[in-house]
# Entry
Amino acid sequence: MSGARSTAIGRPRGFDTDEALERAMRVFWQRGYEGASLTDLTTAMGITKTSMYAAFGNKEELFRKALQRYSDGPARYIESALAEPTARAATEAILRGAVRTSTSPGDFAGCLTVQGALPSSDGCRSAHDVLVEWRNQAGARLEQRFRRAVRDGDLPRGTKPKRLARFVMTVAFGISVQAANGVGRDTLDEIVDHTMLTWPG
Amino acid sequence: MSGARSTAIGRPRGFDTDEALERAMRVFWQRGYEGASLTDLTTAMGITKTSMYAAFGNKEELFRKALQRYSDGPARYIESALAEPTARAATEAILRGAVRTSTSPGDFAGCLTVQGALPSSDGCRSAHDVLVEWRNQAGARLEQRFRRAVRDGDLPRGTKPKRLARFVMTVAFGISVQAANGVGRDTLDEIVDHTMLTWPG
DNA sequence: GGCGATAAGTACCGGCCGGTACGGAAGGCG
DNA sequence: CGCCTTCCGTACCGGCCGGTACTTATCGCC
# Structure
């Protein structure tokens, strides 16, 4: 991000962009795109609006970068889940990960990518679209993982990867709604238990 | 609502409150509580702000009434689902109903009670709380239905009603997120098919 | 120290937010 | 008809929204 050109000229930045972005991410997580005002964001980030605009562009770009950070941080479990040796293990890792992230103590209930901007008031259309894309892509990657599993004989021959992936993602999304509703970690883990009982084959 | 006192005095109302509320409900459905501005609402309702305030109180009360209308209209399927003869039929009715309502053509994708206000920016805390309450109550009623089913031998003796109800509600919530994501009715029905395969007993 | 470059802080922008004051319009009733 | 009551339309409120112009502070380099 910071050019880090051989020679850095000018007054150096007075804050840590990574930490500021982390804090912004949490505000978006808690309040959603619309609900997070610039005042909320910059206050949490500990900087002024001008600094925010200089460092991140505008609110929309800040959100995009916060979402990226979310993917690399709290939602990293998706990446590692896909690397699990079996489709079943991948699924359970995703669901357990969703539970853990949606209920991490000290953080906020729910999932940034679900709470962020479900409805689409005109003003936040682009944030909405980014999240739709994010969610669909997550499903697509799981589908691809399942497709490979069928090819490898890890899943029964008749299994439809797309359908199974959509089912798993549906449960994952539902989990984050339940978490936002105040349902606790243990209860959500029971839901995962129940879901895993239904595994094909 | 309208007093309808034996003698109606004064200038009569120039619009149909039911239809206005219906239209307001749809705006909330599409945009969520925060995303629906008074201008959006009154424009869709075809009345002025003053008329709206006189007839419904304020934005928050309007939302509450719109939610009630949603319960009595698009979400009526929950009521009838609970009256199904078996727990399995009730579950399938809820899930199919969620699919149908979340994807009714001409209306908007998703479910008012999920899209309405998932995150809680300070300004919409009360709308948020109302929806949390709504969702939890829906789950509680399903749980009670399951509890009866266990008592009646309709569900296997070991079944945990609370757990099963939460699972079903999780899938239902997930369905509405998927619908908001643009997933179509047929695909969602496949998810219901898949879910029903897992029925205990 | 002086200069160029970048960041930080202040004060402000037009616009929309939810909500309201007020005067006129439209009905029943004597 | 006048009168009372209720509703409608306009014009407006303070406050916050996302975003910005301009000044001041802090750096590297010569």
User: Anything to note?
Assistant: Residues 7-12, 14, 37-39, 49-50, 53, 58-59, 123 of chain A lie near DNA strand D (CB under 10 Å from a C1'). Confidence is low (pLDDT under 50) at residues 1-6 of chain A. DSSP finds ten helices and no strands in chain A. Chain A has two domains: 17-70, 76-197.
